[in-house]
Each structure stands twice: as C-alpha cells, then as structure tokens.
Amino acid sequence: MQKILVTGGAGYIGSHTVVELLQAGYKPVIVDNFSNSEERSLEGIKAIVGRDITCHRIDCTDAAELRQVFEQEQTIVGIIHFAAYKAVGESVEKPLMYYHNNVGSLVTLLQVMQEFNVQKLVFSSSCTVYGIPEALPVTEQTPVQKANSPYGNTKKVCEEILTDLANSGNSNIKSIALRYFNPIGAHPSAHIGELPLGVPNNLVPFITQTAAGIREQITVFGDDYDTPDGTCIRDYVHVVDLAKAHVVAIERLLQNKAEAIEFFNVGTGQGNTVLEAIHAFERATGVKLNYKIGPRRVGDVPKIYADVTKATEELGFKTTSTLEEAMKSAWDWQLHLQKSTAKL
Predict the structure, then answer these.
(1) What's the pLDDT tens digit per position in 86-96?
(2) Which domains occur in the chain, in start order?
(3) In degrees, to the nearest 5, what angle opens at C-alpha 59 toward C-alphas 38 and 100?
(4) Containing H/E element for 294?
(5) Average pLDDT over residues 64-72
(6) What is the distance between the alpha carbons of residues 183 and 180, in angstroms, rounded to a whole number?
(7) Which residues sit opposite 311 in a β-bridge?
(8) Alpha carbon of 316 to those of 12, 120, 312, 313: distances in Å?
(9) From the candidates 26, 151, 180, 236, which is the catalytic residue?
(10) Is residue 98 among the annotated active site residues?
(11) Choosing a second label site near 162 at 20 to 30 A (CA), which of 48, 64, 154, 291?
(12) Is the model's pTM score more than 0.85?
C-alpha cells in the first residue's frame, strides 16, 4: 500500500479523504495538531474502516517535528495538505496567526518534502481566490482577484508559492491545487461529519443545529441580491464527493500525468441560493426550519459557482450526490452527535 501523508487529516474534509484513500487502497498517515478538530474524528474513521489510522499529533509549522514524521514513516509517496485555519472573520482579527499557520505550514512542508525527495502534493485551495467574479460560472482561467480577507489571501499566496516553485526549475515537486466551492454534508455512516468548535462559520451546521433546537433561529444575510430569490448563490458540494476528488488528484500525480502545477475547480457546476439550500434540507428531512431575513453581511460574495469542465475532462472527476442527499447526511450526523453526547 502506498503511503499518503494527510495534514489536517482529523478535520472535516481531511477525515473524509482519509476514509476514501483507504477504500481506494492507499495507506493514509494523519498529521494534525487538533487545534480545529477533535479526537472523536479518529474514532469515527475507525468505526467506518475497521482499523486504527496512524496519527502524528504535531504542528505543520514545526520543521523538526515534521522531519521526524518523514524519518519515521520513510516511504511517503505523496502529501495531501489540508492543515490550515479557515474562519474568515477570525482571520480579519488575527491576520498574523493566519499567515504564520496557513502560509508558514506550506513553506515548511515543501522544504521538508524537498529534503526527503517526496515529489507529489495535493493542496487544499478555495474558490475565495476568485473574489467577486465578473462572469459566471467561474473557470480555472477566471482571474484571481484581490482577496477580501486574510484567510482568502493565504490561499492566494499559497497558490503563488506553488506556482513560483514550479517555475523555479529547482524543484521536482509537482502540485495540484483543488479550488473547493462549498463543502457540505457528512459520511453516509454518520460516523464523521462537520464538527465546528464554537459558533459555526458555515450555513449547514447552523441549519442542523437550529433543526436540533441547539440554536433558536437561522439568519439569512440579505434577500435583495440579484438572484432568483434575492439570497446569495453558492455551489454546495457533498464532502464525500470532494474527498474522492483528492484521491483522483493524488492518483494523477502518482501516475505522472500532471504538469508541474495544476488547478482544478471542485464543485457541482450548479449554484443554489441560501433559501434553496434551506428548503432542500426541509424536503430531505421533513423538519421545518425557523429562519429570518437579516441585513447583508459585509464581505459576502453575491453569487459564485463552478464550471467543472476541466475536472471532468482532465481529472475524470464528477460529483454524484444531490443537494438533498448532502443535507440528509448532515442531519443524520447531527442526530448521531446528539446521541453520542447524551451517552457521555
């Protein structure tokens, strides 16, 4: 079994990718400092795959600790790099923390990869690099714009670092940057899912927590945008589909089919409004949601969704899950969380 190092592998997208890697015949090794994840995700992975996964509890900005992992594991053939802080609001308040962690961890990882001659990297990027696009849907040729938050800028800077490295002529590292749209949902087993620490930053945990009575009400930020129902449009992609995209990307690298640096959008290719997402949840679960319309939120992009032609044609990847299926899985995960918490 080929060994793939997964940084941030205990997190939301990371844990689902670890499962998909295992099921595709790889041996994932997790690196995570648990600053934005919980130990229970490891238990969830074990419940799905029936075995423990190697996990190194280290910080990716620490070169000495990272070097130890590479020495210990020895036969790593590729890296999937998720480890990053991801809260837009927090990044505005604490920009240095975000640059140190998100940019610093990538630079450190690349340096250690070069030391140990590990040449394949899949990077967790984001559609935030497109800013407020002038035309929809966005393709990989859509201009990258000035970021509207330090978080978004860390993704843009990391992409620039990978591009500079590819163009330097002094590196044999090949990278694929996956630009995610809006990951939602949970594993169909309900053993792993999105586990926000504190107040969620994303819509779906607000939906599920409101449905469960943990939160009183959802606020929809603005209903006066130029969209069919006035609410923002996003491309909601099931997290299991997204996880599978990482397996396809690492395989492309390992089969030496990739250029020195490549970018792919990962989404469904379809936009849904916030209200459509809320109503999809209600249809999928039979639970009515208490929501209200509030004022616009500063920094929100009115509408964005992906053109996925490149991923379909070059990666051979396409999403398969519907919005309702993603919402149902998120609700099953919420119910599982409540059951497991009740047992404690």
Answers:
(1) 988 899 999 99
(2) 3-184+236-267 (3.40.50.720)
(3) 110
(4) strand 291-294
(5) 98
(6) 7
(7) none
(8) 24, 19, 5, 5
(9) 151
(10) no
(11) 64
(12) yes
